[in-house]
Design goal:
The chain has eleven helices and eight strands. The protein is of the alpha/beta class. The N terminus is likely disordered. The structure holds S-adenosylmethionine.
Length: about 290
């Protein structure tokens, strides 16, 4: 691990954009201005290989970007957003317009989950990702089927969702979306590009987003190769899980990451869920942001 000290965030933080499109555990939208404030002043193409709900992408609204995620139905949503926003709104409305109260919501949610498990697609995932508990998209270990629980809240109306879609659509006009593994995304980055990596938290998120195959070791190896080519990489790491990363970094040159910052997350939704809904308002979690430059 580099012995470079922790950075104070630069005084001017980046742009702020608080309207969320999807609920997704690990969403970085609230921290995005802080994260973006560490980006270099200029770059050619922005890459986000672990897109999730795109908190940083949406806030940055880059002119030229490539975004990807291993969960193909999630990329269906992004592709609809970019190319056919009306279809995305219709997919949401298909479920949301069927109920007005909580009882109706639970029945429709169960139907959406069954639709997803029969044929995984963005059309059902978009409603699930708004109506589920805390964005905790998770899958059963034995058969890979989605087991995401229904949230206690009332999902936003179709009108409200449509206005979010229009807002977000404007912000992704320069972005190409791909359903693929991070290795392919990182291998495509060229000198002068910037890559922001927000991988699944190595321990606690194993059953989330179907991320069982994720390897931090392989990610660090790809980052090393990208840096050699002149790519600038930022890596978010769960601040509470330092030891695993230290072991992985042991095999790499100590100069791989040159700086490190702490970024405030606020409440940790995942732990909140595991504690049966108990609020962790008091626990401020800090993510670490490692920079190769
Ligand atoms: C912590 S979340 C990203 C959250 C995102 N920054 C946001 O603001 O919502 C990690 C994402 O990595 C994706 N993922 C898991 N394994 C992957 C892999 N091998 N390659 C690419 N993406 C992967 C998951 O589907 C998930 O959406």
């Amino acid at each position: 691990m580099t012995d470079a000290g922790e950075l104070d965030p630069p005084r001017t933080s980046g742009p702020r954009f608080t309207t969320q499109l999807l609920k997704w555990v690990g969403n970085k939208q609230r921290m995005a201005p802080e994260i973006i404030s560490f980006f270099p002043d200029h770059w050619e193409t922005y890459h986000e290989p672990f897109l999730g709900a795109g908190g940083v992408l949406g806030t940055l609204a880059p002119q030229r970007a490539i975004a990807a995620d291993a969960l193909a139905p999630l990329i269906d949503i992004w592709t609809m957003l970019a190319r056919d926003p009306g279809r995305l709104i219709a997919a949401y409305a298909h479920y949301r317009d069927q109920f007005e109260d909580h009882e109706g919501k639970r029945a429709v949610y169960a139907a959406a989950l069954a639709d997803y498990n029969r044929a995984p697609s963005g059309e059902s995932l978009v409603f699930i990702a708004r109506a589920c508990y805390g964005g905790v998209i998770r899958f059963r270990k034995n058969d890979g089927s989605m087991s995401t629980p229904c949230g206690a809240h009332m999902p936003i109306t179709t009108t409200s969702f449509a206005s979010r879609v229009h807002m977000w659509h404007q912000r992704v006009t320069g972005t190409a979306f791909y359903a693929r593994d991070f290795r392919q995304s990182l291998a495509e980055a060229r000198a002068g590009d910037v890559v922001y990596c927000d991988p699944p938290y190595s321990d606690s998120q194993k059953i989330l987003y179907g991320a069982q195959g994720f390897s931090l070791q392989e990610l660090v190896a790809e980052i090393d190769r990208a840096k050699e080519r002149g790519v600038k990489v930022l890596l978010s790491i769960d601040g509470t899980k330092k030891s695993g990363l230290k072991e992985v970094l042991h095999d790499f040159p100590p100069t791989l990451f040159e700086r490190e910052a702490a970024v405030t997350v606020g409440r940790a939704m995942l732990r909140r869920f595991q504690r049966g809904g108990a609020s962790l308002e008091d626990e401020v979690v800090r993510d670490r942001l490692l920079l190769t430059y």
